[in-house]
Amino acid sequence: MSSMAECAPAKINLHLHVVGRRNDGYHLLDSLAVFAAVGDRLSVTPADDLSLTVTGPFAAGLAAESDNLVLRAARALAVRAGVAARGRLVLEKHLPVSSGIGGGSADAAAALRLLSRFWRISVPGADLSGLAHELGADVPVCLRNRPAMMSGIGELLAPAPRLPDVGIVLINPGVAVSTPEVFRIRNGAFSQSASFPAGGWQDTESLAVSLHTVGNDLERPARTLAPSIGDVLAALEALPGCLLARMSGSGATCFGLFPTPQAARDAARTAFRTGWWVWGGGLNHNWTRK
């Protein structure tokens, strides 16, 4: 069997509202999630057992992990499908770790997609989604890998309104933010779920107008933990053509919306600072397998 590969695109929360809290302590969310044309890359080649090697510019951020989420996803899929867990996995880590753009969840989802093909197994969609949910709240949306409205604790997905050809600049200031800690220090009232046009948006400008009416409820506590988030947002807002600057997920990565992917690529070239990770482009579309 030949080698195979799957990309794990960055997940961007265009807005994120905390709308309640369950009795078990998990927070209920409302979010519009999209995927950028940048991410990690997971490949697999035949082997007698299961192994994982992590390479790439952000590999060091996972060096302390004894059981990477990719391996947990692989083992869980093998058990669910009743097959032997075999393959030499290589994860090229291009996304910052603990950065609010779903890196670990995207990697786990890529493992589920990739190994389903590599092992030539067919797991019913509902079972695969349930398995993704067991691995983490963001894994189901990353498994689906297309724009979605997220609710519940992130596992309830609905189709997103029609999106234009969005340009996005992503900037991470080089700091990791703990999602549990962000939720722990968050206070204040719960927000309402967003209401967007049923037919979607014709251009990025109209999308930005809608997004200005909502926000990210985790930005304030995240900035308490990582004040450099404020520097990133200010830098994005100062870029020519930026229509909206906001933090994604629980941080510290922030994004700026631009009229087109090319405008975002042009803006990203001027945004670099020492220690920052910067990327500009568009949504992932058909970028998943490369």
- The residue ranges in which pLDDT falls below 50 over 5 or more consecutive positions are 286-290
Average pLDDT: 94
Percent in helix: 25-40%
CATH domain topology of the largest domain: Ribosomal Protein S5, domain 2
Intertermini distance? 18 Å
Shape: globular
Percentage of residues in strands:
25-35%
Q: How many separate structural domains?
A: 2
| CATH architecture title of the largest domain | 2-Layer Sandwich
Name of the top-level CATH class of the largest domain: Alpha Beta
SSE order, one letter for each helix or strand: EEEHEHHHEEEHHHHEEHE
Which structural class is indicated by helix and strand composition? alpha+beta
What is the radius of gyration?
Answer: 18 Å
The biggest sheet amounts to: 6 strands, mixed
Individual helix count: 9
Q: Give the total of beta strands.
A: 10
Compose a concise summary of this entry.
With 290 residues, the protein is α+β, with helices and mostly antiparallel strands. The chain has nine helices and ten strands.
Describe this structure in words.
- The protein is α+β, with helices and mostly antiparallel strands.
- The protein has 2 domains: 4-159, Ribosomal Protein S5, domain 2; 167-281, 2-Layer Sandwich (Alpha-Beta Plaits), CATH 3.30.70.
- The protein contains 9 helices and 10 strands.
- It has helices at residues 69-81, 103-118, 125-135, 139-144, 179-185, 204-211, 219-225, 228-238, 261-268, and strands spanning 4-21, 27-45, 50-55, 87-92, 148-151, 156-159, 167-172, 244-247, 254-258, 277-281.
- Strands 1, 2, 3, 4, 5 and 6 form a 6-stranded mixed sheet that branches. The protein has a 4-stranded antiparallel sheet with strand order 8-9-7-10, with helices on both faces.
- α1 (69-81) links the parallel β3 and β4 (87-92).
- α1 packs parallel to α2 (103-118) and α1 runs antiparallel to α3.
- It is globular.
- The two termini are 18 Å apart.
